Amino acid sequence: MSSPQPHTWEDAEAFKKALKDKGLKATRQRVAVHEVMMELGHASADQVCETLASRGSSKVTTASVYNILAQMAFLGIYSHRFSIGGKMYFDVDPTCHLHLYEPLSGQYFDVQDEELVEYIETRCKRRRFKGYKVDAVDIQIICHQSQPKKK
Ligand SMILES: [Zn+2]
After folding, report:
1. What is residue 2's predicted lDDT score, i.e. its pLDDT?
2. Stated pTM of the model
3. Same domain for 15 and 80?
């Protein structure tokens, strides 16, 4: 049911092409941030920055990582996620999918269930919310680990 691997961006070239299509250059920083996002799948600017620093790319500040991530989300290359603490997370996969979210660890796991998404979207589009029009549906299933982690 859940796959921790994002199912978009097969390779760096696809990402570079997406940037080019949006009129952006594939700078070293953008490509480095994307490589980390590909591994983490869902991450905050802090987490991306920590991973970059652990690889010796300490010159990149959290602010510039955040700017890159926010820009990618704005362009629809990534998507936004909000954790329970109000922290902004970014998702390397911009397509519509469900999430299993564990608040304790702040981890997101992708859940592919097109049937469920379609069902809920259809229901929401049919329903009338007076004065509002539905743009999108974002489903986050809150969970905690049922098995204690093995040491
Ligand atoms: Zn996701």
Report:
1. 40
2. 0.80
3. yes
For position 48, what pLDDT does the model report? Answer: 95
Residue type for position 114: E
Query: Around Cβ 44, how many Cβ atoms within 10 Å?
Result: 21
pLDDT digits (tens, 9 = 90+) for 63-77: 999 999 999 999 999
Question: Are 96 and 76 contacting, i.e. CB atoms less than 8 angstroms apart?
Answer: no
Q: Return the structure tokens found at 109.
A: 């796991």
Domain CATH for 43: 1.10.10.10
Same domain membership, residue 70 and residue 111: no
CA of 71 to the centre of ligand 1 (A): 17
Q: Residue 103 Cα, ligand 1 centroid: separation in angstroms? A: 15
Q: Indicate if 17 and 88 belong to the same structural domain.
A: yes
How far, in Å, from the CA of 77 to the mean position of ligand 1?
Answer: 13
